[in-house]
């Protein structure tokens, strides 16, 4: 047995032992795909375990995240600091080896994966980021951004629609440095893939503009290496390499669906070791020969980075200004002074918050050169185009306006990949109602704490004539329920400035919820919105608190004036972001919403779910319980009771009940 075979078998045994110890996990993929993964990591991929975040490293994404033990075994062998105890604690509380790979939790994990297809689309985003940075910063004889993105994908990933969307865009863009290794074992949880998946995958990818290759024997590492090298030479198209493997290779469960998601069992594990000729008696043991072999491979990785450092030094000497700019991009530097400037907060007329966001995007584009984003074919409506920037295309990767096409599913995950790559401030736009399509990717962005900005317009029944299919009702509640997602629904243009300010200066993803219809600039709005909720207007002794978000704030503002005429004192509270409001001190929150004032009315043209926390048991919520209708927006506000008169009526009833 040569050293390559022994190392591959080490990966297999470590993975199977960890799953067996945990009595939980997925041994099938690691046993079948270990040769391909080893070949990539040992013979092709440029990476340095001693500096896992090296900017110009090749990226590797395990899209088939259920096979996480393969990745953990690789990280263990290659010296990424994942020790034997962590392998033993696979899937246990607080271990560095959770059931699916988690970015930011385990060193060397490039993306949180598990929901199938998401990692595939992340890879497209990473390749787009590399292409843009390379086009912007590279110069003749100075290719300082020059790396590949590799994805290990399974049959399940390629059944998911998100992969199709992302692959379509990747082919259109000609992302030649994206290479997908397709672990084609023809098995899913329910049985053979022929139960539901009989298409010719390579032909599908060829139709999408990909170059495709096939390796008939997943254990033939020479052929795998030769094919990856060939794929690297084709820089005009992304590549799919179908590698035919046997799930659960070497075990009695080989080729069976039972190998996918359950431990082998003690006896089957013994038979696997016998089949592989495994001589180590103690579990989780790495043979000495493998340890020595890995030292050489690690040294190769260190030297690869050293070579890049030499190139970087030469680049800095010849292009010092570009070198400084690249450093700023990688640090995601933000022009804080500009965000504090009068210009950033100034607007000349009443406009919709989507229009205000569009103005701000273009102001920011002049100050943030690494701002990059676009829309799912809705840029004219979302106002996401940077007017002085070019389009990112296969002809010109220096462009920073992205046409994602009608692909919200993929857009969300591609944005995650771009953010994970580093160096870019990214945003994506669509209608709020279609955040349903992006939900899985948005959830993963929140889990990974990625600073992605979602421009979600047409935020209520104010959408109007498009009808209930396009009128978001429950979507605000959905976004607010998501941990680590900051949701902001500004009441006017100045609050929109606050929303962008927050999105650019805090960690984690932010959803900007913006109107189609025009809104007046309200007296008192501005930087106080950075507190999430604030007193916009207060009239003497307060009898009732009126609170709301977005377009409904103007209504409660006007209603307060009518109530004042009736001798009723009101406090008008704008609450653009519940999450930000909850970050404030208890003293501040008490000042805005004093406990002794129990007469409270919240108004929002959406589901009332969640508002009762703020109105209390004595308060009311004027919200929506239906899906809207098709009519002009102003008529719908009348139909569903979002009027000044209705708010006054509700307030009076609330006070009478006391």
CATH topology of the largest domain: Rossmann fold
Model regions low in confidence, pLDDT < 50 over at least 5 residues: none
Mean pLDDT: 97
Output the number of helix runs.
Answer: 26
Anisotropy-based shape:
elongated
Rg estimate, integer Å: 28 Å
Number of domains: 3
Beta-strand segment tally: 18
Function: Catalyzes the transfer of a two-carbon ketol group from a ketose donor to an aldose acceptor, via a covalent intermediate with the cofactor thiamine pyrophosphate.
Binding site for thiamine diphosphate: 66, 114-116, 156, 185, 260, 434
Protein name: Transketolase
Subunit structure: Homodimer.
Structure description:
It is a single chain. This protein is an alpha/beta fold and 658 residues long. It folds into three domains: 3-303, Rossmann fold (3-Layer(aba) Sandwich); 336-513, 3-Layer(aba) Sandwich (Rossmann fold); 533-656, Rossmann fold (3-Layer(aba) Sandwich), CATH 3.40.50.920. It is built from 26 helices and 18 strands. A six-stranded parallel β-sheet has the order 9-8-10-11-13-12, with helices on both faces. A hairpin with a 2-residue loop joins β4 (187-188) and β5 (191-192). α1 (3-22) crosses α3 and α5 (118-137) crosses α17 (408-421). The longest helix has 31 residues, at 288-318. The chain is elongated. The chain starts with a helix and ends with a helix. This is Transketolase. Keywords: Calcium, Magnesium, Metal-binding, Thiamine pyrophosphate, Transferase. Pfam families: Transket_pyr, Transketolase_C_1, Transketolase_N.
């Amino acid at each position: 047995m040569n050293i390559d075979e022994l190392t591959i078998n080490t990966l297999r045994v470590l993975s199977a032992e960890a799953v067996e110890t945990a009595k939980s996990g997925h041994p099938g993929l690691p046993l079948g795909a270990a040769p391909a993964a080893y070949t990539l990591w040992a013979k092709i991929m440029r990476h340095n375990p001693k500096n896992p975040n090296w900017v110009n490293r090749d990226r590797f994404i395990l899209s088939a995240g259920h096979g996480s033990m393969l990745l953990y075994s690789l990280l263990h062998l290659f010296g990424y600091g994942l020790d034997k105890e962590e392998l033993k604690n696979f899937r246990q509380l607080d271990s560095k080896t959770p059931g699916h790979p988690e970015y930011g939790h385990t060193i060397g994990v490039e993306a949180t994966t598990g929901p199938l297809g998401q990692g595939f689309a992340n890879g497209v985003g990473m390749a787009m980021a590399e292409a843009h940075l390379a086009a912007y910063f590279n110069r003749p004889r100075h290719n300082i951004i020059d790396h590949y993105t590799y994805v290990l994908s399974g049959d399940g990933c390629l059944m998911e629609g998100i992969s199709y969307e992302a692959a379509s865009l990747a082919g259109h863009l000609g992302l030649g440095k994206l290479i997908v290794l397709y672990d084609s074992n023809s098995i899913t949880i329910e049985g053979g893939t022929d139960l539901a998946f009989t298409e010719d995958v390579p032909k599908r990818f060829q139709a999408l503009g990909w170059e495709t290759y096939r390796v008939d024997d997943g254990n033939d590492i020479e052929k795998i290496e030769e094919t990856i090298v060939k794929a690297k030479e084709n820089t005009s198209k992304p590549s799919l390499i179908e590698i035919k493997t046997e799930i659960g290779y070497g075990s009695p469960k080989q080729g069976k669906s039972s190998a996918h998601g359950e431990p082998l069992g003690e006896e089957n594990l013994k038979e696997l070791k016998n089949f592989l000729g495994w001589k180590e008696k103690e579990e989780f043991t790495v043979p000495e020969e493998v340890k020595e072999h890995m030292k050489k491979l690690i040294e190769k990785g260190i030297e690869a980075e050293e070579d890049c450092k030499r190139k970087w030094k030469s680049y800095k000497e010849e292009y010092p200004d570009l070198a400084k700019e690249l450093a700023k991009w990688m640090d995601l530097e933000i022009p804080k002074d500009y965000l504090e400037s009068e210009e950033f907060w100034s607007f000349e007329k009443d406009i919709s918050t989507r229009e205000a966001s569009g103005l701000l995007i273009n102001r920011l584009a002049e100050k943030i050169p690494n701002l990059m984003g676009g829309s799912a074919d809705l840029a004219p409506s979302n106002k996401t185009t940077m007017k002085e920037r070019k389009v990112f295309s296969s002809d010109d990767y220096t462009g920073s306006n992205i046409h994602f096409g009608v692909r919200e599913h993929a857009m969300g995950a591609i944005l995650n990949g771009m953010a994970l790559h580093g160096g870019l401030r990214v945003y994506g736009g669509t209608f709020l109602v279609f955040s349903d399509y992006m939900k899985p990717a948005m959830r993963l962005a929140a889990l990974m704490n990625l600073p992605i900005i979602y421009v979600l317009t047409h935020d209520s029944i104010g959408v109007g004539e498009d009808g209930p299919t396009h009128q978001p009702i429950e979507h605000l509640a959905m976004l607010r329920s998501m941990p680590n997602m900051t949701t902001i629904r500004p009441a006017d243009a100045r609050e929109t400035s606050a929303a962008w300010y927050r999105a650019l200066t805090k960690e984690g993803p932010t959803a900007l919820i913006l109107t189609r219809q025009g809104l007046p600039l309200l007296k008192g709005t501005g930087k106080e919105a950075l507190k999430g909720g604030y007193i916009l207007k207060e009239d003497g002794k307060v009898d009732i608190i009126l609170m709301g978000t977005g377009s409904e704030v103007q209504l409660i503002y006007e209603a307060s004036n009518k109530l004042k005429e009736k001798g009723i004192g009101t406090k008008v509270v704008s609450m653009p972001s519940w999450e930000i409001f909850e970050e404030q001190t208890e003293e501040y929150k008490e000042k805005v919403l004093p406990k002794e004032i129990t007469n409270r009315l919240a108004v929002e043209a959406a589901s009332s779910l969640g508002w009762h926390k703020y109105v209390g048991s004595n308060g009311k919520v004027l919200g929506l319980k239906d899906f809207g209708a098709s009519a002009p927006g102003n008529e719908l506000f009348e139909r569903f009771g979002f009027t000044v008169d209705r708010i006054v009526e509700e307030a009076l009833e609330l006070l009478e009940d006391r």
